[in-house]
């Protein structure tokens, strides 16, 4: 089988097209959880972190929100991951980029408990990722 310049060009165009779409996909930025400090209004928490997965009222009448937030990575980590994916894609003519699954977000799950004024009273981490993120951001409301 004879491979022509035209065939190689077509393969390159398809490969680079796949890579362009993959690299152009927006990446989730690192979330700042500083809004979860004591006394922060519930409306502000929801405005910053999104709608809760579940809203509940505790036995003592206080509100509780169960939240799940996708934690992205910082600018440097996003750039490094994008560069790695691009280099891999170029080296394999786009095949690796098409074959590799997209990066899954890391979920931070927690419950936010509010006092009678709808202000944060305490926050409880519901998974290891949340505990790690809250510890690194030194939140004063985390149990």
Describe this entry's structure for a reader.
- Helices cover 42% and strands 20% of the residues.
- It contains five helices and four strands.
- It has helices spanning 5-24, 42-49, 75-91, 95-99, 128-137, and strands at 54-57, 63-71, 106-114, 120-125.
- It has a four-stranded antiparallel β-sheet with strand order 1-2-3-4, with helices on one face.
- A hairpin with a 5-residue loop joins strand 3 (106-114) and strand 4.
* Count of DSSP-assigned helices: 5
Order of helices and strands: HHEEHHEEH
Class inferred from helices and paired strands: alpha+beta
Q: How many structural domains?
A: 1
List key phrases describing it.
single chain; 143 residues; alpha+beta; 4-stranded antiparallel β-sheet; 5 helices
Q: How would you briefly describe this protein structure?
A:
The protein has 143 residues and is α+β, with helices and mostly antiparallel strands. Helices cover 42% and strands 20% of the residues.
